[in-house]
Design brief:
alpha/beta
Length: 224
């Protein structure tokens, strides 16, 4: 993949998502569409965004019993996203069934620990240890389940890459050094994430909320 930047179009507005995508399409490698976009616009909206000509990362973070997740993944066959997320904490059977149900052209990647969570957050829901330990535990589970890769923060991606050399590693929570952190707690710069082994970088607000999204994307691309 020549450009590892996927712009996160985290909006329920099809018009806004399409407008930003058209502005930045020459300086990003793909479009990430999240839950708010999908619930507002459905498969028809995803198809419309795909017409822009960039790979679609459908970030739905599916997490349910194995049979339900498998059927949900099968229901997405008509739009064949390039990348689809599920939650690693759904367990090995769920991960295996999600991969088995996916189209051959869809990479299934498992979310390990959200970049909005830190050690205190994990302990509050009964997960001992620090985020890194939890990420590694779930990455090993995902690798054993035979899916394509995981989503992890830039703080852990180097360790995951060492354990999973061929894994497809997605790093969100990426912020240029001069950008606001927002609601993210475990962040790195685009260059740090890329050097540490990220397959793709998911970048939202530093691009989408910039006065000139195209220039912001171009500037980030230049650092890589």
């Amino acid at each position: 993949m020549t450009n590892r930047i996927f712009v996160a179009l985290d909006t329920p507005s099809l018009d806004r998502a399409r407008t930003i995508a058209q502005k930045v399409r020459h300086h990003v490698g793909g479009l990430k569409l999240g839950l708010e976009f999908f619930l507002a616009n459905g498969q028809a909206g995803v198809r419309e965004m795909a017409e822009i000509g960039l790979p679609i990362f459908l970030d739905l973070k599916l997490h349910d019993i194995p049979n339900t997740v498998a059927k949900a993944v099968q229901a997405l066959h008509p739009i064949e996203p390039a990348i689809l997320t599920v939650h690693a904490s759904g367990g090995r059977a769920m991960l295996e069934d999600a991969k088995a149900a996916a189209s051959t052209g869809t990479k299934v990647v498992a979310v390990t620990t959200l970049t909005s969570l830190d050690g205190d957050d994990l302990r509050s829901v009964g997960v001992p240890g620090d985020p890194r330990a939890q990420v590694m535990r779930l990455a090993e589970l995902a690798m054993a389940a035979g899916i394509d890769g995981v989503v992890c923060s830039g703080k852990e991606v180097e360790a995951v890459r060492a354990a999973w050399p061929k894994g497809f590693l997605v790093v969100p929570g990426v912020r240029p050094s001069d950008a606001a952190v927002g609601d993210q707690k475990r962040v790195v710069t685009p260059r740090q994430a890329a050097d540490a082994g990220a397959s793709i970088l998911v970048i939202g607000r530093p691009i989408t909320q910039a006065a000139d999204p195209d220039q912001a994307a171009r500037a980030i691309e230049a650092t890589l």
